[in-house]
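Reply to dn_fold:

You asked what the input looked like. This is it:
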Amino acid sequence: MTYVVTEPCIKCKYTDCVDVCPVDCFREGPNFLVIDPDECIDCTLCVAECPVEAIFAEDDVPAGQKHFTALNAELAKHWKPIIERKDKLEEADEWAKIESKLDQLER
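and this is what came back:
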């Protein structure tokens, strides 16, 4: 089992999760993070660090967010690793309150 970053991360990209990852499995896109399922060791450390509660165990991804499992795997193959915390996106706090923002995902 792996962990999956879901829709609440889009346009927020808080990187608290990156700081605690012991295997550097996060990958960074322009306005979203993903977890590389081939690198994730299922340690659960990132889950508690996500301020928007966007990270779930693969088996626990909410029904409306299941497609993010495949999306994480796909984008992880193309995006570069992120291994240090960065500043959140400028309007992250406002976007954190918005649902249904998949159309805002930049690849």
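The CA atoms of residues 36 and 77 lie 8 Å apart.
Hope that clears it up.
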